[in-house]
Amino acid sequence: MEWITDLFTDYTLRTVALGSALLGITAGSLGGFALLRRQSLLGDAISHAALPGIAIAFLLTGSKAPLVLIIGAAVAGWSGAALITTVTTRTRIKYDSALGVMLSVFFGFGLVLLTFIQRQPNSNQAGLDSFLFGQAAALVERDVLVIFAIGAAVLLLMTLFWKEFKILSFDSDFLGTLGFPVRRLDHLLTTLFVIAIVIGLQTVGVVLMSAMIIAPGAAARQWTDRLGRMIVLSGFIGAVAGVGGAVASSMIPSLPTGPTIVLIVSCIVFFSLLFAPNRGLVFRRIREWKAGKMLRVDAVLVDLYTLASQHSSAEHPHSERVLDVMSTISGPARRTLVLLKDLELARQIDSTHWSLTPSGVSRAESVIERQFGVAS
Amino acid sequence: MDYAIDIRDMTVAYREKPVLWDVDLQVPPGVLLAIVGPNGAGKTTLIKASLGLVKAAAGSVLIHGRPYAEQRSTVAYVPQRGSVDWDFPTNVLDVVTMGLYGQLGWFKRPGKAERVAALKSLAQVGMEEFAARQISQLSGGQQQRVFLARALVQDARVYFMDEPFQGVDATTERAIVDLLQGLRKQGKTVAVVHHDLQTVPEYFDHVMLLNVRRIASGPVEEEFTEENLRTTYGGRVAFVSALSAAKK
Ligand SMILES: Nc1ncnc2c1ncn2[C@@H]1O[C@H](COP(=O)(O)OP(=O)(O)OP(=O)(O)O)[C@@H](O)[C@H]1O
Ligand SMILES: [Mg+2]
């Protein structure tokens, strides 16, 4: 638990944690919107496309200042996104193909430039290759300040245009008929998305930044049906994964940041897919199983009622054997009958004979009414 | 004379293929208009191009005598139900409130007044008890009514609706028709893409027959003829004469 106190006292650790929390919140929130707009994979393409931008910005300026590299990355990432849109609207090439091609072309070009830079005699280039898998330990206060300023601006704009972005994501045609400039809003949201991606590249790396974009939103969607809550939760998950990964990797020198963050966020996604109420697989199974059980209960109840209706009393007892034969839904009626007894809908007369209780009779009548529209 | 809807020379091509060719449509105010034509005739495209959602190669749209761009706030649109993702994380009331975002303008968030208005139009379509329901838990007909409520809350003068009867049961269809006729009684103009030819004479007073070109448009008694239908639907004569039998 020493690392918790370190978090507040150790300067490097605090810087790293703060920086990654900020980028996690920004990437998570904007990634949530991207998920709803089915643009998660675009995020992957943008982060890969940013690599040549970083290299070119360095070649042109000779500087490794965070702002310079971020601007280079943003310009390249944005161009990649714009090219994908242009190619899909102007040619017959499909969106996913355009995405794949653009991603590999930009990324390949970026790798070539990076190799070229590394061959240069000048030693200033050291560290640029950390953009591949991210290097949290390299974050200094200056970087965190830049991330903070840009991230805060992105989140502020997102909040400001909240209702516009909401319809843009749900029904952009309708937004157009309300008189809002759909294309410009679309560009704005995409730009915020690009910025949210590029401020994370130094820490997480271009290769795995897409996980920071896709995963928090996917996990958050499992837990809530409200847009606001989903985006906040998505940002929170992004922050948790960012801090977790960055802190772990800055304490263990050989641990690369990007992969560690991805590992953490993947665990959160996995947990959410399984255990979220409503949408989670486990709870869905339990619900289905319960529904199935109630269906069998009702079926046997109705069978008992039907048998009894041939006698004067609705509570007339009948043999289990007959119910086994009648039962259309499940096999042996025994287990369901025991359940009926627990629910006090039926009682056991002797080892094989059962009859309805008064509450069993009324439930059977309401089931029949529901199924056939009449009470018999 | 001022038409409620006055579309001239509307021409749209996706890539090279023309989808709408020089289409004119004039609709007087207070009319319930059915837009009919086979699949791919360009009905959806006509609406979308008129509302500026699809780029037109040529064409102009006047609403009550003034260009559509100036009249946007008086026009409401009900898109085809399948055009959105119903798994979006939001509820019914929220979707209906979206109809008021235009009046709210930039940055302002909907408040109590907007919620009250949205609830009122939900009540008009008989969906008030669904206000808090997550939209992924609606049936097709309920989704359709939510979209209708969203258009109603806009309190427009002219409505464009794309297949509002798609996938709704007979009771709901009846309720929607009553609603549309109520709108007409208030002097509003409603243009509806409609697929069921049998019910055109019963529900609507004007009809437009469309198949890339405008085949005919005008009062149902004058234009909803076997000959026009034959031209619109091509060789499907058996089907068309079955229809005219049903009309008698
Ligand atoms: N985005 C698009 N890109 C290319 N072609 C399109 C596009 N949208 C529609 N089309 C084509 O335009 C034609 C008209 O389509 P539209 O959707 O307007 O028809 P519709 O009359 O509404 O048909 P339906 O009854 O099936 O709804 C069709 O041939 C269709 O293939
Ligand atoms: Mg259509």
Could you give a short account of the major beta sheet of chain A?
Answer: 3 strands, antiparallel
How are the strands of the biggest sheet of chain A laid out side by side? 1-3-2
| Tally of DSSP helical segments of chain B | 11
How do the SSEs of chain B run, as a string of H and E? EEEHEEHEHHHHEHEHEEHHH
Radius of gyration of chain B: 18 Å
Can you tell me about this structure?
In chain A, strands 1-3-2 form a three-stranded antiparallel β-sheet. With 376 residues, chain A is mainly alpha-helical. In chain A, strand 2 (346-348) and strand 3 (353-356) form a beta hairpin. The N and C termini of chain A lie far apart (69 Å). Chain A has two domains: 2-279, Orthogonal Bundle (ABC transporter involved in vitamin B12 uptake, BtuC), CATH 1.10.3470; 283-372, Arc Repressor Mutant, subunit A, CATH 1.10.10.10. Chain A is 76% helix and 2% strand. Chain A has helices at 2-9, 11-36, 40-61, 66-90, 95-119, 130-133, 141-160, 162-170, 172-177, 182-198, 201-204, 209-223, 227-251, 257-275, 281-308, 320-326, 334-342, 358-372; strands at residues 318-319, 346-348, 353-356. With 248 residues, chain B is of the alpha/beta class. Chain B has eleven helices and ten strands. Chain B has helices spanning 43-50, 68-71, 92-97, 101-104, 112-124, 140-152, 170-185, 200-203, 220-223, 226-233, 237-247; strands at residues 5-14, 17-27, 32-36, 58-63, 66-67, 75-78, 158-162, 189-193, 206-211, 213-219. Chain B has a six-stranded mixed β-sheet with strand order 6-7-8-3-9-10, sandwiched between helices. A four-stranded antiparallel β-sheet of chain B has the order 2-1-4-5. In chain B, helix 5 packs across helix 6 (140-152) and helix 10 (226-233) runs antiparallel to helix 11 (237-247). Chain B is globular and about 50 Å long. The relative contact order of chain B is 0.17. The mean pLDDT of chain B is 88. The interface between A and B is medium-sized, with 25 and 30 residues. The complex binds adenosine-5'-triphosphate (ATP) and magnesium ion.
